[in-house]
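Q: Structure tokens for this one, please.
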Amino acid sequence: MSHIYQNLRVRQVFGVVSTDDIIPGRYKHASTDPAELATHVFENMVPGLAATFKPGDVISSDDTFGIGSSREQAVSSLLAAGVVAVFAPRFGRIFFRNSWNLGLLAIEIDSLPASEGEIIDLEPSQGLVKSPSGIVHFVPPSTEMLDMVKHGGLLAQIRKQLVRTAIKDIS
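A: Here is the predicted structure, written as tokens:
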């Protein structure tokens, strides 16, 4: 059964977005706590934006998102801020992989037909977004990638599989 994400609020960012734009490098060693890092997301691009994020927000970007360094904090801080998905025409490859590995939906889509603050529904397994402006389709992620997100990322998925295997072996 596919998961449908409902009532997601769109947050827009414009232009090429680097991982340094998502979480400035000066915080890389200041804290390892994603919740603390979340208070600084996008602060160089849009001061104060971090304080406005809520659980269930999605980011819509009009250009390449997540280029630059390979820091996982860019993804973990977005997750801690409440972001469940990022929509962009292109992703930095390392950011894209980190997103799925940590449980963040990274959806490649030319343009999300929704403005700042609008509410959308997302059905990733069907490659479908419903917005006030209509429906848009995208290439759906693989079942394996969606399973990673469902479990909270690759490591969480592996842990759960190991526990299931251990319980089965004990039985």
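A few notes: Helices lie at 19-22, 34-38, 73-81, 93-102, 143-150, 154-170. The CA atoms of residues 151 and 157 lie 5 Å apart.
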